[in-house]
Design brief:
CATH class of the largest domain: Alpha Beta
Bound molecules: flavin-adenine dinucleotide
CATH topology of the largest domain: Enolase-like, domain 1
Order of helices and strands: EEHEHEEEHHHHHHEEHEEEEEEEHHH
Distance between the termini: 57 Å
Structural class: alpha+beta
Number of strands: 15
Length: 343
Amino acid sequence: MTSHSVETYVANPVEDFIRAESIEQALEVRAKFGSECYPLVGGTDLLVLMRAGRWSPRVILDLSRIPGFADIRQTDSELVFGAGATAADCLANEFIRTNFPAMYKSCAWLGGPQIQNAGSLGGNMATASPAGDTVPCVIALEGTVVLKSKRGERTVSAEEFAIRPRKTVMEEDELIAEIRVPLANLASDPRGFQPDAMKVPKLHTVVPRPPFGSGGAPDSWMTNDFLKAGPRLAQVISIVSMAGFVEMSGPRTVKRLRLAFGCAGPKTMMGKSASAVVEGKELTEELIEEAVRAVQQDITPLSDVRGTAEYKRMLCSNYARLFLQDVGGFKLTGTRKASETLA
Ligand SMILES: Cc1cc2nc3c(=O)[nH]c(=O)nc-3n(C[C@H](O)[C@H](O)[C@H](O)COP(=O)(O)OP(=O)(O)OC[C@H]3O[C@@H](n4cnc5c(N)ncnc54)[C@H](O)[C@@H]3O)c2cc1C
């Protein structure tokens, strides 16, 4: 473990900067300094908030050099992201590219290349901002967060991890060690995802998947997607985002639907009412509209500098519509234009 005194450009001075060389060392430091110690991976949230004087750690604990902390691997049942894995690490991962388009897209649109190279999934989760783009992707796919401390290890559902902005269930001696997603929810979409067709100008759009081949739709298949609205095409905090996950039977029968909305409430908000409308039923254009209306029951967006609450509500409904239309192979009519009104 190396310790540096640092001259920083932040509002309040930091007493110590400690670079951990192992998870055990990091847990020692966390246990010793508790709430006065802030972990750091990329620093893309931490330093911004320190400069603004909103966070004032006495000690910064650098996790970025811990061997294996950024690894992305698979077990028999889970895709495991080391908490230090960056957006760029996800973009370079072939399995994520083909099986987890929601995560791939959220990382492709997270900040710009510099932020993607530095910003980690653990940092995105721990900041507990409703605008954290990778978080809805993990939640929609029923992922979990693995927390470690000197006391041991525990796993919490990603949906339960954030309580409100900047407040999580993490105790002050804990670290996020891993973020996990069940492999069973990542079975490949038979119609395929074409990341190369996803150019930046398509930021707000679904890339429609091709129809099923001559064999028709399988009895059981899944897909996931991510949509995000922002005023620019890069370096943009979401106005609203949505990660969708669906398990299907045949071309249009929905077994399971998970819609997770960013910037639509104090934390990632789940569209549970929409799930209740469609689960066990065959998608029709009328059923999709019923689900789209139900989305409104589960979101509580506020007006802010990025958009009015009404605009955000309209975006959430439109994103649910786009996702379900794409899943069911219907013509895409969802839109993000501000001139559109709520259905
Ligand atoms: C210009 C710019 C553009 C951005 N654009 C986007 C965007 O489009 N979408 C988006 O979602 N975010 C965006 N962000 C925010 C930020 O980049 C992400 O939230 C990023 O994922 C944070 O990761 P990090 O490693 O930099 O976290 P850090 O800044 O290092 O840490 C953030 C917080 O998490 C804590 N922490 C970090 N790792 C752990 C851990 N393993 N265990 C416990 N606590 C931990 C830190 O103590 C701190 O409180 C942007 C930021 C900037 C500056």
